[in-house]
Amino acid sequence: MTVNYSLYSLPAAVLVAYYPYYYKGYLVAKQTGNWNNISPRDNLNKAERQMTQDIWRKAKRCEAAHQNGLETFPIFATAVIAANITGVPTSTVNALSTSYIVSRIIYNSIYINNESTRLANFRTLVWAASMGISFSLYILAARKSSHR
């Protein structure tokens, strides 16, 4: 019997989505010497004049990567749950869940550290792959459900 690790991918996906947010906070605090926890969503905009432009742009990309992670998480999470509920083979759900996490780590890394059009286009392909993984889980769940 294969151990089902796919549900562990859900908190892992949350951590991967939040990593850029905390990295942004680190960049702001390191550049400015402080962090305003009363209004944390305004920190980056308020800190722009105190930060080098390179680091400020990186922090902005962190913010965007985090937002994208939050946007894609519900799609992935419900796909994993649907696949588990309908009885998609555990090994398949494990492999696709792991692939999603890896693709999101690659996505974040490219987004945060890149300013070239070529790599930005590659980042889009990685995003599309992560979405394709989620849709694959939905399709497998639908097929499994229709055969019951």
From TrEMBL:
One Pfam family matching this protein: MAPEG
One GO location term (cellular component): membrane
Transmembrane segments annotated in the record for this chain: 124-142
Subcellular location: Membrane
Statement: the UniProt record of this protein carries the keyword Cytoplasm: no
Record keywords: Membrane, Transmembrane, Transmembrane helix
Keyword Transmembrane helix annotated: yes
Domain of life, per lineage: Eukaryota
PANTHER family, sorted: BLR7753 PROTEIN, INNER MEMBRANE PROTEIN
Protein name, UniProt field: Uncharacterized protein
